[in-house]
## 1
Amino acid sequence: MSTAPQSEAKHNLQSDDVRSGGCLCGAVRYEAKAPLRAVVACHCVQCRKTSGHYAAMTSVPLERFVLTHDDCLAWFRSSEKAERGFCRLCGSNLFWKPAGEGRISITAGTLDGPTGLCIERHIYCDYAGDYYAIAEAVPQLPEH
């Protein structure tokens, strides 16, 4: 019997599962070789600017993440705390990598096929755009 909380067990993959994904044009492809964290929706200004709305991100330990095709991957240091990965050919927003944390966040919409994931919380809600309401019945935090 698993000791993981029911919501974690429901939304994460088994540790032997490999999930793949990539950008719109296929020039950047990746594999996540570990259970994915439930999705966090970030409404901070940087995430809104890079995604065009809010960013829906899952994450995986960096050592369990593999770029399988990265010729068109570009990184942009968006702050002292993080850098963002995107395809320089089609412009897809793919990754957010915090400095020194050993994890990489993956834009949930870039995963192939059904994910089985759901949003577990919204963060930086004080910065959300004024053109939408947050409808999910999950925690909505003003900051991180």
## 2
Amino acid sequence: MSYHNKVVLITGGATGIGRATATLLAERGAMVAVNYSRSEAEAQETVQTIQQFGGWAIAIRADVSNNEEVISMVDQIVQQFGTIDYLVNNASITRYIAMGDLDAITEDAWDDLFAVNVKGMFYCARAAAPYLKQGKGAIVNVGSIAGITGKGSSVPYAVSKAAVHGLTKSLAHALAPDVRVTGVAPGAVSTRWWAGREEQMRSLTSQLPLDRIASPEEIAALIASILEQPSMTGQILTIDNGQTM
């Protein structure tokens, strides 16, 4: 599918899955808004990479946990590009807390993770919804197998991703029939989240049925295929090299 002249907002678009998705969709003709919160240098690098092959992209700062900043971001994108056709809700944070160490889980950990991972996705979907409806667009929310298994970098992270999956289904109902809303649940992906934990990643790889870790580009390819699928909504697609099989 060609995304020629389609406008895509990708939150957390500066690195990892977000960067790979921005690059892929721009290669297919999309005009991409690369959202970032703190990774300005990486966001500008993503934009420059896209511009080098003749693509259209802008970097735009907004903390997705701040509703006013989200509204301002969407307004700026619409002023520049005219609309928003697709939204990829990718921005997420985590906290590394041992699953069994419940005493180490603070109220701030719960609040911070839900503010970005759940409320942030809702704010972006709500702000973009009027434009997505006009163009019969789509949303992809990036969840995690942690939201399926209940096991991840911390209890609050896993629960926040389960909430993302629930939000995906609720938004699919709320925005039908005009907007399709689908989720992806990646397993381990070779991003900077593994920095300093390379030995853990290698150990996990040997336990996976496919004996490999997914690349950001592979997740991006799935996201792109979901955006163009007119009959899919309200589903959570797992891509984890058999980890939850």
## 3
Amino acid sequence: MTRKTTLALAAAFLAFSAPLTAAETATRTIAGVEAPFKTTTFTENADPMAAIDAALSAARQSGKHVLLVMGMNDCHDSAWFANLIASDRFAPVRERYHIVYADIGMPHRGIVRNPEIPKRFGFKIKGTPTVAILDADGEVLNRRAAPKWRNAASRSDDEIYNELMQ
């Protein structure tokens, strides 16, 4: 392959896989969701530790993994991610995992809720959502990738789907 062809292919790939711009993100929609950047999925007064323990117990029985989504309702990336996972297209993702939404606030912005959740799994939260894939014993399987979800609203639906279905 010639150098020009290689450079052209690399440029095309980067353009295709680049995160969405702020303007593109602001106008995104999710089929069947009226307000994709708003959610009530992260229940502020819930007991996320009990929900995690129940999901881990279910994972031991089913052989599935646990998808632990640490975020909050007022975070646009957390809301986008929760709404996307709830959409029809992501039904196979919901079938693949036991999903727990843990309201941890936005510690990186000084809003701290349920700090024992990220601590239990060894995370220092740098952005939300932080999405951990856990095995049935509670071991984090995607430690390096988990914090990278904090830009979920800027990622393509295909990228999110493909990463969660690996």
## 4
Amino acid sequence: MDPFDVIVVGAGPAGLLAAGRAAELGGKVLLLEKMRQEGRKLLITGKGRCNITNDASVSDFITHVNPNGRFLRNAFSHFFSKDIIELLHKYGVETILERGGRYFPASNKSSDVLQALLRWVHELKVEIRCGQRVEKLIIENNEITGLQANGQVFSCQHVVLATGGKSYPATGSNGDGYQLAKHAGHNLETVRPALVPLETAGNVAQQLQGLNLKNVKAVVWVNDKKVAEDFGEMLFTHFGLSGPIILTLSRIVVDALNENNKVDITIDLKPALDEQKLDNRLIRDLNEHGKKKIGNIFRYWLPSTLVPVFIDLLGLDPEKECHQVSAKERKQIRHLLKNLPFSITNHRSFKEAIITAGGISRNEISSKTMESKLVKGLYFAGEMIDVDAETGGYNLQIAYSTGWLAGHSCMKNSN
């Protein structure tokens, strides 16, 4: 068998972009996928809708990336949000822009995005083989010469590892790409779940299971010190807390828990009102409804599901009339509205994490090419690199951009 110019391992968004770009530049490209079909994880992103990318500028985009977004600046300069949108439009996927700068396919089907990318690589004559588990890289004199998959040896000049992280392992990303990199001499920054729901002590969250709150503020406290906050939407579950702002804050929480710190989250249910304005509102409502029971007045301040839980936390008699509420009790109500507390006991596993934090050390990868600094001809793309971002289409764009640059660099560096 004639050698390939480029072999890409992993047929997710990063791998597809790497394979497609290398083929555009005339490369003979083989794309190997361990699962029986390509893009399994892409199909479930955005709850099956696929948040394709974000319309943030490069400078703004980088602020949403951890731990060092500047590493991606060169990749973004080569291939960015407008480029993936243009590519998808070319293959029939219309897009819509939603709040937060998030792009989705107009059809709301992630399968349309995957099929468009597959049509692109097929047109470029990329050879795709599914059900192929790569067992080892073949390296001679610190240079890639091929790899072995399912017992068969394939020769090539360049290998792009785009095997994903460890999140949603049922889709194929179980971390085995890290082992290939480690055997090539690469170091791994601690791999942990990111954009992951959180578990709480007590039964308050369980009582509120299914309640979705919008326009609230969540604050993270580590050892009683405020370290982060976010504003937006959250969800109570049978185990604790989830939803966009919780997922965004989870990166800090996971790291703090791993260091055995005490972690709490407080929810500000009235972030638009400072303490004084909220107190004025409480005084007004209590005075207006002086003869009514306090248990009935809480519905003016809270979703109905929250009311009994709130009254229980306060230790108030729901039969008490509003005019009987003391200044001390009013202060307690105000404080709880601004600081609904949850003690965080754990995070959920990789099975429920949207992405993976950690991965191949950025210090060992050229940001200009995505090539390994240790092994000539070895490249990395996507989630397996030690960069990750918040929700909002950022992580998929990182996959496209690093994949495109890796594929591009393979051919530009060809003998």
